[in-house]
Structure prediction request, 357 residues.
Amino acid sequence: MKTKITYLLIFTAAALASSCRKDKPDEPKEAPKVTKGLFILNEGGFNASNSSIDYFDYATQKNNKNVYAAANGATKWDVGNDIQTYGSKVYAVINNSNLLIIANATTLKSAGGVTISQPRNIAFYNGKALITSSDDHVYVVDTATIKIESTIKVGRDPEHLVVVGDKLYVANSGGFDYPHYDNTVSVVDLKTFTELKKIKVDVNLSDIVADKYGDVYVTSRGDYGAIKPNLYAIDTKTDIIKKNFNIPAGMIAVHGDNLYIINTDYSLLPPYSQVTTYKTVDVNTETLKDNFITDGSDKDFISPYGIAADPVSGDIFIADATDYSGAGKVYCFGGDGKRKYSFETGVAPAHFAFFSN
Prediction:
């Protein structure tokens, strides 16, 4: 689930749509054998229990819907919030169901799960899964025993997190305390699993990624009024902010020297507005580049809701939640910014994980 106020902005429209119909996940067929492709976690509707996992096969160019249910039986997941692969497993964070779901990435058969209060996002370090929770902690789960080993106190309502070397960087939002947001990134020593410090950045932090040069990039969603969204770079050698880009940034993904940015600027003040932009930052020179979509395909998007870059090919995937009630879409773009293909998904696609067997 996106930052809480963002979700409220779409809730009215989504509620109107879902009052007419509450789409269930597609009836599962036989689970495919996963070889090389892309997992999509469809967030589903709030309290609709229709979150699901799709698998897009690169070789067949087919999107297989609701594959976890095909392998294990029907699910009632409420609000899928993150998905990642680690080793031979795929991990799905289901926020409103208070679950971390684990499955064999090739067969999709269940490999267990863990109950975590309001889990948000996940990262990995030396056999440990690290999961942020809205209870202001990071949970440490052993991936071998699938048990919670410890928790780490961080900032308020932590969101995304990223590992750089032996340190963990956590974006704290304070989203449940609107309008009194948090404004810090927690730095955690992964050798001791303790918080080292907090870096003051900006209000309502959300996405955070690391580049190959040792910097992390973190987005501030602002306060949906006077304080606008922004992007910052932090030098992980010094843990000091090295650049304030002064550009609106919401969802981000990095590949090579390119940081891809999608920002939808919502205003809670009259006149109400919603404006989406697509930008690129060169992380080597730290300069802003042009729109990364070069063929005008961005005009086809209805509700951009997620972005990821294939770590091998560099292809860019953008999720479109459309009306947040019916089927969504995913668009794939090459490094030249031209659309290669698109496909239909479950309800509100938002999160991606790449896998190659």
